[in-house]
Design brief:
By secondary structure, the protein is of the alpha+beta class. The protein has 3 helices and 8 strands. It is globular, with a radius of gyration of 15 Å. The mean pLDDT is about 95. The chain binds cobalt (II) ion. The site of cobalt (II) ion has 6 residues, from strand 1 and strand 5.
Length: about 130
């Protein structure tokens, strides 16, 4: 598994885009809204990985609840896999709690699923597989 990106929950995407632009010395290369997840995201390239900033787009979205409970900060770590269905099966057998019955469409043209933090030392793990472009 390759580290694909780290997701960071932020209160204000515009302000955080400016902040992370100062940190990296370059601006984000795209923004995307994932309606089903209630998030607005932006992406920065950092070497072979990425940073994904996440702002809640509605008050009951998971990111809004996360920030309410824990404040801004690292929300998840995402690993690229070649075969997400096979990995979901394998990890279930290894005792991880897979939060999704089936992979769903995430940001950045990917199929994604999540592992419950309580089965992975408090870390919300995202598995992602690129959807081939047609
Ligand atoms: Co992510």
């Amino acid at each position: 598994m390759k580290l694909e990106h780290i997701g960071i929950a932020v209160k204000n995407l515009e302000e955080s885009n400016q902040l992370f632009k100062k940190l990296f010395g370059k601006r984000h290369y795209k923004t995307e809204e994932v309606e089903s997840e209630g998030v607005k995201t932006s992406f920065f390239k950092t070497g072979s990985s990425k940073i994904e900033l996440l702002e809640a787009s509605k008050p009951d979205s998971p990111i809004a609840k996360f920030i309410e409970k824990k404040g801004e900060g690292i929300h998840h770590i995402a690993f690229e896999v070649k075969d997400i269905l096979a990995e979901m099966e394998r990890l279930k057998e290894e005792g991880f709690i897979v939060l999704n019955k089936a992979p769903k469409r995430g940001a950045d043209n990917k199929l994604v699923c999540f592992l419950h933090p309580k089965s992975s030392n408090g870390v919300l793990v995202e598995l992602c597989q690129s959807i081939p472009k047609e």
